[in-house]
Amino acid sequence: MKSFRFVSRMLLLCAAVMMLTTAVPALAASKTVILATTTSTQDSGLLDVLVPLFEKESGFIVKTISVGSGQAMKMGEKGEADVLLVHSPDAEKKFMAGGFGVTRRLVMHNDFIIIGPAADPAKIKGATAADAMKRIAQSGSLFASRGDNSGTHAKEKGLWKAASLNPEGQKWYQQTGLGMGQTLNVAAEKKGYTLTDRATYLALKKGLNLEILVEGDGKLLNIYHVIELNTVKWPKVNEQGGKAFADFMVAKKTQDIIRTFGVEKFGAPLFFPDAGKKPESLGL
């Protein structure tokens, strides 16, 4: 009888140890939040400020994967991220319609600009965005495209469409397949034109020798949303961590940081906070 009780206790002890050892990794994993985001939030330096603050306040650890918005949403469609911070509104709407996301909230905006060499061989300075694309094509001046299905690439394709042009296959049109920072370097090296978000340009413009030639066109607005993923489709997604990060991005304290980010270094903010605004106010 004693032997039976001893064996039973040992079995219970072993079971408890197994439960503990399997629970610890699960708990540790739940503290990691995978953020899939566009390269502009990384290249601009904004995440270098926000992520440590979020980690300190929440106790979560953020693993940032900086890719184009299109790639970030592909990760979301496969359940390979916990939360998205992206800037490709049309693609985001399709993502939500597909049931991959449960909430999509406005975070901030800045704008796109068309930059190029000071000599401006295509004579685009001061033109509208669509007219600038026409002049670049007509002059055969080099245009460096990210070509990576990012939010920036999507915006660029929209501008070519507005100009009734298809640059695919043209010698002067070069797709880098790279992020924004690297594409800026390619454009600078080859003295060509490119489309970029203002924040990344200002953060990296030193040594580029590329100037802002087209800005202020309503078609160049660059809007960011934070998206929480659907855990019904992907049960392994860190729902709690993803929601915590999304809530953090739209919180007043974070929005105030976004409002002043870049002012000290560049004399102007790199982003403008939008949490709580109606989409219609931004033309969405």
Task: Summarize the model shown.
The chain is an alpha/beta fold and 284 residues long. The chain has helices at 2-30, 39-43, 46-58, 69-77, 89-97, 129-139, 151-162, 180-190, 198-204, 239-250, 252-260, 263-266; strands at 32-37, 61-66, 83-86, 101-116, 143-145, 173-175, 193-197, 211-214, 221-229, 272-273.
How would you describe this protein?
It is a single chain. By secondary structure, the chain is α/β, with parallel strands linked by helices. The chain folds into two domains: 36-110 and 221-279, Periplasmic binding protein-like II (D-Maltodextrin-Binding Protein, domain 2, 3-Layer(aba) Sandwich), CATH 3.40.190; 111-220, D-Maltodextrin-Binding Protein, domain 2 (3-Layer(aba) Sandwich), CATH 3.40.190. It is 46% helix and 20% strand. The protein contains twelve helices and ten strands. It has helices spanning 2-30, 39-43, 46-58, 69-77, 89-97, 129-139, 151-162, 180-190, 198-204, 239-250, 252-260, 263-266; strands at 32-37, 61-66, 83-86, 101-116, 143-145, 173-175, 193-197, 211-214, 221-229, 272-273. Strands 1, 2, 3, 4, 5, 6, 7, 8, 9 and 10 form a ten-stranded mixed beta sheet that branches. Helix 6 crosses helix 7. The longest helix has 29 residues, at 2-30. The protein is globular, with a radius of gyration of 23 Å. The model is unreliable at 1-28 (pLDDT under 50).
